[in-house]
Amino acid sequence: STWEKVLSHCGRSLDGPILDHKWCKDNAITTGSGYLKMWLASLFKYPEQPLPYLAFYGPQDSGKSTFHEAVCQLLLDGGYMDGALALQSDANFNGELQGSILCTLEEVDLRDKKIYQKVKDWVTSNQISIHAKGQTPYKAPNYTHWIQCVNDRDFIPKFPGDTRICVMYVDALPDSDKIPKRQLWQMLQKEAPDFLAALLSMEIP
After folding, report:
1. Beta-strand pair 127-130/138-141
2. Contact 19, 132 (CB under 8 A)
3. Would you say 116 and 88 are in contact if contact means Cβ atoms under 8 Å apart?
4. CB 158: neighbour CB atoms within 10 A?
5. % the chain with pLDDT above 70
6. Strand runs (DSSP E) across the chain, as ranges?
7. Could you tell me the pTM of the whole model?
């Protein structure tokens, strides 16, 4: 399917490492595409459960943003948000995160240690402190899951030994494999109900 092709392209750099990864072996995940599909299945079936922070990097127009754009626009009816303002707010305002299950970041440099601490907390914590401007902060269930897309790998908040962040390189597509955006969206939209049904039928390890 077209969805499988998108997942295969975006997750290809995981194909090798996954073969040697014990958890993936134990759960019959053999490709990067399979890992991303499992990630999405968990997002939809168990939004209250944390998931690794996905970071895609690669050249301009390599298709790395297609993964989250398609999910937000074709599979979700709300519940997604650009998370850049919340992460970069010096005053820690983040009211837009209330009710969001998928937060995306495009070309945002997250090397700052204060920002990284927010990422660490929001990726793993069961609760999140919501602070809308002009209101008193309050605790709420943390449903956020994070996807970052950048051209520069150095923008990704990767620190030695950190298992919260899954980094993938997305290579440029050869001209023969490129599909015009409008045509690609039509194909993905047509297949979206079947793909979502497949996600919801998956068993989550």
Report:
1. antiparallel
2. no
3. no
4. 17
5. 99
6. 53-57, 80-82, 102-106, 127-130, 138-141, 146-150, 165-169
7. 0.90
